[in-house]
Write a structure and sequence with these properties.
9% strand; elongated; 2 domains; Alpha-Beta Plaits; 304 residues; 3 strands; Alpha-lytic protease prodomain-like; mainly alpha
Length: 304
């Protein structure tokens, strides 16, 4: 029985410098936009602008936490945290989802109250402010595009910013409608639409982050595919006790028992493990521990 560990990234590497820059730019521009929205929202008493400002402020917090999580990925392992602080990135993703869900409740509550007593507001001003939001959110969101499928925190940032751009577009349309119709209840209606958009974009993030927090198998990995890859290698007769979990939003780990043909020598077993680890890297599994046993071998411990 032997163990091996693989600590190498492969095709799924993320461009950390570009991601850090995207987070910093996104935080600065969105924080500036929040200040503008809050100031104008209070001055003209627009719930849609204030709701969107709250949403954007939550996104600023999410971006800041995600940036912190990426910094903590670099913390070296020690005797108390043998994998370092990699798991922080998963906890941050979960926290971001919870924060966004709380913001939904606040927006819906205020919108329902305002529906009963819609107040006159300048639609033209709302449309102009929201148009600025489209430019900021679309521009910063595109900075995450190339890395969005490699990490759930990056994907979360991308989805939030693009959904913000969509919401801002809706507010522009609503502002124009108010200019020509004086239908001021649209301000509250837009707030409810914003809440629904946030809910849709957040729900998947919540499920993903919860799954990874509970050491579930990451969504982009299938245990059946792992077994199929192992069976492609000459000398492998089976694979069991497969455990796959996420160390962070960027790295995954696996432990498993590999059953080898009875004629496989120790040297051949080492080659098989090396081959299998290489194949697993292509399946986005970077840290691998394999234990081998020969076909027909009797196991005397509880994990065999």
């Amino acid at each position: 029985m032997a163990q091996d560990h693989s600590h190498h990234n492969h095709d799924h590497s993320i461009t950390m410098k570009d991601v850090n820059t995207a987070f910093i730019v996104g935080i600065v521009l969105n924080l500036l936009f929040v200040v503008i929205e809050v100031g104008m929202g209070l001055s003209i008493n627009s719930l849609s602008l204030l709701s969107d400002a709250g949403h954007n402020l939550a996104d600023v917090g999410a971006l800041a936490l995600s940036l912190l999580a990426f910094k903590l990925l670099k913390v070296k392992s020690n005797k108390n945290y043998t994998y370092g602080l990699k798991k922080t990135s998963i906890l941050v993703a979960l926290l971001n989802a919870i924060i966004l869900l709380l913001s939904i409740g606040a927006i819906i509550y205020e919108a329902i109250i305002r529906f009963a007593n819609p107040e006159p507001i300048p639609g033209k001003t709302i449309a102009i402010i929201a148009a600025i939001g489209i430019a900021i959110n679309l521009g910063t969101g595109l900075m995450f595009l190339s890395n969005k499928e490699k990490d759930i925190n990056v994907k979360s940032a991308y989805l939030h910013l693009m959904s913000d751009a969509f919401v801002s577009f809706g507010i522009v349309v609503g502002g124009i409608i108010m200019v020509f119709t004086n239908w001021f209840w649209i301000d509250s209606a837009l707030s409810l639409i914003i809440a629904i958009v946030i809910l849709i974009s957040t729900w998947k993030l919540l499920k993903q982050s919860m799954r990874l927090s509970l050491d579930g198998v990451p969504e982009n990995i299938e245990v059946a595919s792992i077994e199929l890859e192992a069976m492609k290698i000459t000398g492998v007769k089976g694979m069991h006790h497969i455990h796959v979990w996420a160390l962070s939003t960027l790295e995954n780990a696996l432990t498993a028992h590999v059953v080898l043909a009875s004629h496989v020598t120790s040297a051949e077993a080492q080659d098989i493990k090396h081959n299998l680890k290489h194949r697993l890297e292509h399946l986005n599994i970077q840290h691998v521990t394999l234990e081998t046993e020969n076909e027909g071998e009797t196991c005397y411990n509880e994990v065999c």
